[in-house]
């Protein structure tokens, strides 16, 4: 058996796209809940979703986020596979506020080097983002479509060489238009 596994992994790692395919397999298995045992004592997602709904309502009442129209439930024909017990299909909009940033005009030098971290898509790597190559000014925040994202915001590179890469902000920062930001409720 051990020889068969070694041969399989040797083939996987020496194939031209073997490592990429192995990563995709692991991600697929993780999303489907097949990498860990599911325990009956684990809190079901429905309980977490209730807590998120309470927090979202609180943020709406405080005026920190706009009240949103309810999202339709995920229909059966939208579900690509069955989930483990206690898991649920939800729309991403139920978990946080989604937005993208922008790139201030490079002709306006007063928009740059202002000390407010500005994340570009190439800086969104799998992991924590604690610094940026460039920064923007308060004037750029005031005059451009640049929301300031708090610590804990999830960033997704929308296009470019690292499309789909995800990072979590460890600093308050804004982003360019190639980065989607989710501020979790």
How would you briefly describe this protein structure?
The protein contains four helices and eight strands; from the N terminus they run H-H-H-E-E-E-E-H-E-E-E-E.
Q: What would you say this structure looks like, in words?
A:
This protein is α/β, with parallel strands linked by helices. The chain is built from four helices and eight strands. It has helices spanning 2-14, 18-31, 45-61, 138-143; strands at 96-100, 112-119, 127-129, 134-136, 154-157, 166-169, 174-175, 179-184. The strands form two sheets. It has a five-stranded mixed beta sheet with strand order 1-8-5-6-3, with no helix packed on it. The termini are far apart. The model has no long low-confidence stretch (mean pLDDT 88).
Essential attributes:
3-stranded mixed beta sheet; 4 helices; 8 strands; 19% strand
Number of helices: 4
Helix content: 25-40%
What is the beta-strand fraction?
15-25%
Helix vs. strand class: alpha/beta
Give the overall shape, derived from the CA principal axes: flat
